[in-house]
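Message: A physicist's question: would you kindly supply an amino acid chain plus fold tokens?
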Amino acid sequence: MRNWLVVLSLFVGLQSFAQNDILGTWYNDIKSSKIEVYEEKGLYYGRIIWLEDPANSDGSMPRVDEFNEDPALAKRQLMNLVILKELRWNSSEREWQEGTIYDPNNGKTYECYCLLQEDGTLYFKGYVLGITWLGRSTVWTRA
């Protein structure tokens, strides 16, 4: 019985470790920003913590969410903007699901899921209307 408890404890520990592999700082696909992924109450979020180019397209600073169609949101700063929201770890699928990801380069928010690839990168699939093939993907690398 004692051996069974040890095995169970190890399994639970490995599952917990796997779900936290997403934590840390990541470069976006073109290395123009760094995103800090953090956990809050069992959900995972990501905020921009570094921008390669801190200026807007017109040269003004600080860089704002200029491509957002909502005029009020288009004025918010990109630095510290939370672009990844409410991902949940699904241990049976071994991926983070049911979240959203925001692309400040086009002002659009997508439903998303994410998985850690064997090479250590994070693969994101953003999609709309609940249809995973109706969207696009991106890969982040650890900073």
In short: Residues 94 and 115 are 7 Å apart (CA to CA).
